Request: fold
Amino acid sequence: MYDEMLNKSLEKYIDDNLKENRERIASGKGVGELDFSEFYINLEGFPDNFEFSQKIKDAVFDFIYVFGHGTYKIFKKVKPVLFLRGPYINGNQLKFSIIAASVRATGRNHFYMTFDPDGSFSCIWEYSCETGEWELKEADWDRNLKQLSD
Reply:
């Protein structure tokens, strides 16, 4: 169930990101269609042997351990990376946050990251005693990084 919750959270991120990008283009503020093939998903934070859904694979993300051996070569130029934060548990609720960052290597073991406050997205799941299942209750963009520590 945990893998399914993570996949649905990432899928919701993709859907909302594409929707928001289309709205920006329609209003004349966007610069072009969003291409996830230029994005990396940082695998640190995901369970071992985590299986990404087909929808996420179809979005053409690159998957990487950002702080793995030799990755500084990839990040000599700035690359966009999605990081998973959480889960956070509060009562019968579970929260995941997906945070966009620009990552650049400044040396073999040093990375410079700039987190985009408009690029963080949270999904709150709630356990229902009636159904015995986790249900997605809220999925929205965080406009303030302080909210992620709730």
